[in-house]
Amino acid sequence: TAGITQAPTSQILAAGRSMTLRCTQDMRHNAMYWYRQDLGLGLRLIHYSNTAGTTGKGEVPDGYSVSRANTDDFPLTLASAVPSQTSVYFCASSGGDSGELFFGEGSRLTVL
Amino acid sequence: GQNIDQPTEMTATEGAIVQINCTYQTSGFNGLFWYQQHAGEAPTFLSYNVLDGLEEKGRFSSFLSRSKGYSYLLLKELQMKDSASYLCAVKGSNYQLIWGAGTKLIIKP
């Protein structure tokens, strides 16, 4: 089972350019999440979606947008990248008895 | 405010036991999770506690005291592959997870 697939694995992006990080799951989970992980900080929630067709803002949503057209896909878009968006981005979905999160392998983004 | 505290780094010896503590202050409580994250990889689920007490799962155990806002992860019979970061996360009143910064565990032979 693939679980959650993210693409690209890594990317270098010029400031001001746009970028979409892709995330696809095959577990039929309703809830999906985008986090960023920076050294010395906990995972921070960017946006989430509790079910297809709905999205919500997390702790650090500015500069990012998401869509949830169907259950499987949850892309994250940076409209105009800035160096402070350099980070590792993790997509996740929640399921299981306790609602634990299942993470993708991460996308390392560098904005220069 | 909401806060999750855990030590930044710990060192332990192969074959020994180590306890990683996590204290939290959150608006509401709907469960506490522990995740393991190897360097350069995604976090993976270890344990979930919602009631007070100890949950044992093989070499790993997790304890929760809701009245004290405290949890610990206990790792027994440490192996070199246990070298990783251990993340504590609390599900708050809005059912979203609040994450600690993680504890980097270094295992020495």
Topology:
The complex is a heterodimer of chains A (112) and B (109).
Chain A: E1 4-7, E2 10-13, E3 19-25, E4 31-37, E5 44-49, E6 56-57, E7 64-66, E8 76-78, E9 87-95, E10 100-103, E11 107-111
Parallel strand pairs in A: 2-11
Antiparallel strand pairs in A: 1-3, 3-8, 4-5, 4-9, 5-6, 7-8, 9-10, 9-11
Chain B: E1 3-5, E2 9-13, E3 18-25, E4 32-37, E5 44-49, E6 53-57, E7 60-65, E8 70-75, E9 84-91, E10 97-99, E11 103-108
Parallel strand pairs in B: 2-11
Antiparallel strand pairs in B: 1-3, 3-8, 4-5, 4-9, 6-7, 7-8, 9-10, 9-11
Order of helices and strands of chain A, N to C?
EEEEEEEEEEE
Return Rg of chain A in Å. 13 Å
Overall pLDDT of chain B, averaged?
95
Oligomer: heterodimer
**Most extensive contact:** A-B, 19 and 21 residues
Find the structural class of chain A using helix and strand composition: mainly beta
Helix content estimate of chain B: under 10%
Average pLDDT over all residues of chain A? 95
Distance between the termini of chain A: 36 Å
Structural commentary:
The complex is a heterodimer of chains A (112) and B (109). Chain A has 112 residues and is mostly beta strands. Helix content of chain A is 0%, strand content 48%. In chain A, strands 2, 4, 5, 6, 9, 10 and 11 form a seven-stranded mixed sheet that branches. The relative contact order of chain A is 0.33. By secondary structure, chain B is mainly β. Chain B is globular and about 40 Å long. Chains A and B meet through strand 5 and strand 10 of A and strand 5, strand 9 and strand 10 of B.
Based on the model shown, name its key terms.
heterodimer; A: 112 residues; mainly beta; 11 strands; globular; B: mainly beta; six-stranded mixed beta sheet
